[in-house]
Write a structure and sequence with these properties.
two-stranded antiparallel ribbon, 11 strands, 692 residues, three-stranded antiparallel beta sheet, mainly alpha
């Protein structure tokens, strides 16, 4: 800094003995840090810590700044924590009532520290009020060089706050905004866009990751939970006892043919017996008893009896036998060499991580919402399984919300609940010595991927490409995937919990469902397969003599189905196909080039290569490169490509009844009546197709 006279002592509008946390409920027994604390404001044990936040994120570090900058940091933090503080309101500063989170305030105070470092490096005045607009702009340019532009947004917010809160700051703040009238994103010249920064997970990662997590839950999970319960009961029963009492227990254990000798791992020659686990199974503490000590004659005699059982084959791998799987080398064997007590916590962590990944993928819940799931939160909601959790984002009231679940996701939550040693949370620590500790969500994904790749020679699971995968990417990917299913856009909007004036009006919700080019071939394959399934259902119904549709398009479809059956019969007569095998017809149907698009009001059989007679294309301006029908111009009552299915008929009849009731009204304007008459005429034409 340049040499200057000491700055006069500044007096804050906040008292030193004033509690920092005034706008949020305190935990029972919690004592808020005081404004006068100049080193650190630790909010652990003061307010509820979000389940996905570590203890470090609940501390606002104030050290490392000069007294004046330290006071300015505390004042900014105090305002962010208490936006409706009487002293703030008295200065004419009116802010939204919701306080900022501790993690947000912690970051912004850290950005203020970055400002001090920049000022010192560029010999700027110690008093920030003397900095010029060019100084702040140079700082933002510097931040853009050392980090991503989007990460600089909060630095701009901090500088603007020095101006916005100027009347509440002891230093007087900034008399002018370096970027008057511009939002932070516009300062950084970030264009408004519907595109989310969050990327979808690549399909090459998505499929093996979800398969691995589900395999851990459904196949390995029961083994892990069973071994864990078994070990807990054995460990709790074992105690220190006299040698004579231990001898009696040992004799009883030997006489029971159901008892087996635990091995470290199968297939080894030396040191296969797990003597420590064996001692626990018999009922005494191994370190205290030294019952099988090889340096004594009695210990050797006892060992000989156990080794005889091994020779007879009365053994088990570790805590018990495990499920066998197919391995990459073509062999088949247990997914783990031998689950020992020391391995349990490693596998419990992997299983917990698998449960988290699976729920994050299929529920579309935010990371914070998954981590707030309480034990016993899987309930029935509108007749469908759902999980109840806390919605933190954008709502200070922290309301309970419901996310619909599939049964596998409910199983994942139940499994995580059984593993969790936390008093309330389903997703938490699983190690006995870390019962109250939480975990870092992104690290859980990374660790699970590494474990799968490290052990796949035993588990038989596919290798997972190592890429950056964050919790939020699961939400983005599943929203994109589910969007293509009929009617799912409503469910996606409900699950994403984005409020909108109309369905899907929210730009962020639409951004979640934007296609990723890497998934294009999978979408095309899935769409083609689903279309064939629907076509096969119609073929089977037609073969049974059922009505599959009405209109010229339906007639052409029946002709195509008849040709398929005739060809199949020819193959059977010539011995090229077996009789009674419906797969012959299905195989021919798959190769038949019959174009059909299924819809809610009708089906379209327009051939892209020969669109003759398609009413939607008549006198239409066709966009360059477009193939297929123009759905918004569909005239199902007048197009020869349209099929009226039996499932569509009730909808059209309901429409006819609705239009008839409307036309009976005397208050309809003439032009509106004419429009309704045209609609009724088209509706009648559709219904007549079924009556002919």
């Amino acid at each position: 800094m340049t040499g200057r006279q000491p700055l006069p002592q500044r007096i804050s509008i906040f008292r030193d003995d004033e509690p920092v946390i005034q706008s949020q409920p305190l935990l029972e027994g919690g004592q808020s840090p005081l404004f006068g604390n100049v080193d650190c404001w630790d909010c652990n044990g003061v307010i509820k810590r979000p389940a996905n936040q570590g203890k470090a994120n609940m501390r606002v570090l104030l050290r490392g700044m000069s007294p004046d900058w330290n006071l300015m940091a505390r004042e900014l933090a105090m305002i962010w924590f208490n936006p409706r503080h009487p002293a703030v309101l008295a200065r004419g500063i009116h802010l939204p009532a919701d306080p900022r989170t501790v993690s947000t305030v912690r970051l912004r105070v850290g950005y203020l520290r970055n400002l001090t470092t920049f000022g010192a490096a560029h010999e700027l005045p110690a008093d920030i009020t003397e900095w010029s607009d060019a100084d702040f702009k140079a700082y933002i340019d510097y931040r853009c060089e050392v980090t991503e532009v989007t990460s600089v947004n909060d630095h701009v917010v901090l500088i603007k706050a020095l101006h916005q809160f100027r009347d509440a700051l002891a230093c007087g703040g900034l008399r002018r905004d370096p970027w008057p009238g511009l939002a932070a994103s516009h300062v950084l010249e970030q264009p408004d866009t519907d595109q989310l920064k969050t990327q979808a997970i690549a399909p090459e990662v998505w499929f093996p990751l979800l398969r691995a997590s589900w395999t851990y839950i459904s196949v390995f999970g029961p083994d892990i939970l069973r071994a864990r319960t078994y070990w807990q009961s054995v460990h709790a029963r074992a105690r220190r006892m006299s040698v004579s009492e231990a001898e009696q227990l040992f004799a009883r254990w030997l006489s029971n043919p159901d008892n087996r000798v635990p091995l470290h791992r199968t297939g080894t020659v030396h040191g296969v017996i797990n003597w420590s686990l064996l001692s626990h199974l018999i009922g005494f503490w191994p370190k205290k008893q030294q019952f099988f000590k090889p340096s004594t004659s009695t210990g050797l005699a006892r060992r000989a009896k156990i080794e005889q059982l091994v020779a007879e084959g009365r053994t088990q791998p570790g805590l018990g036998f495990l499920t066998e799987v197919d391995r990459p080398d073509g062999s088949r064997g247990p997914w783990h060499p031998a689950l020992q007590p020391r391995d349990l916590w490693i596998e419990c962590v992997a299983l917990r991580n698998a449960c988290y990944i699976f729920v994050a993928a299929v529920s579309m819940m935010r990371d914070s919402e998954i981590r707030e799931v309480i034990k016993g939160s899987v309930v029935e909601y509108f007749g469908t399984p759902a999980v109840k959790s806390i919605k933190r984002k954008g709502d200070a009231d922290l309301p309970a919300k419901y996310w619909w679940l599939i049964e596998p996701a409910a199983l994942a939550i139940d499994t995580a609940t059984q593993l969790s040693l936390h008093d309330e949370l389903a997703f938490a620590g699983v190690r006995p010595n870390c019962a109250g500790e939480l975990f870092e969500s992104k690290q859980a994904i990374t660790d699970f991927t590494a474990r799968i790749n490290r052990t796949r020679h035993l588990t038989g699971l596919d290798e997972i490409p190592v890429e950056n995968v964050t919790p939020h990417m699961f939400r983005r990917t599943m929203a994109m995937l589910t969007h293509d299913f009929p009617g799912s856009e409503i469910a996606v909007g409900m699950q994403l919990k984005h409020a909108a004036k109309r369905a899907l009006a929210n730009r962020s919700t639409q951004g979640y469902m934007e296609k990723d080019p890497r998934w294009a071939k999978y979408f095309d394959q899935a769409l083609a397969e689903r279309r064939f399934e629907r076509l096969r259902e119609l073929f089977d119904a037609d073969s049974r003599g059922e009505i599959i549709g009405f209109g010229p398009g339906a007639d052409r479809m029946r002709e195509a189905f008849t040709a398929v059956r005739e060809k199949a019969e020819q193959l059977r007569e010539t011995g090229q196909a077996r009789r009674g095998d419906i797969r012959v017809e299905h195989g021919l149907l798959r190769r038949t080039r019959f174009s059909i698009r299924f819809g809610k009001l009708n089906h379209c059989t327009m051939n892209d290569d020969d669109p003759e007679g398609a009413k939607c294309l008549e006198d239409a301006v066709i966009p360059p490169g477009h193939r297929g029908p123009l759905h918004d111009r569909c005239r199902p009552s007048r197009c020869a490509n349209s099929i009226l299915g039996p499932e569509h008929l009730p909808i059209w009849k309901a429409e006819r009844s609705s239009l008839t009731v409307l036309l009976e009204s005397d208050t309809i304007a003439p032009n509106h009546r004419a429009s309704l008459v045209d609609q009724l005429r088209d509706t009648e034409l559709m219904i007549k197709k079924a009556e002919q």
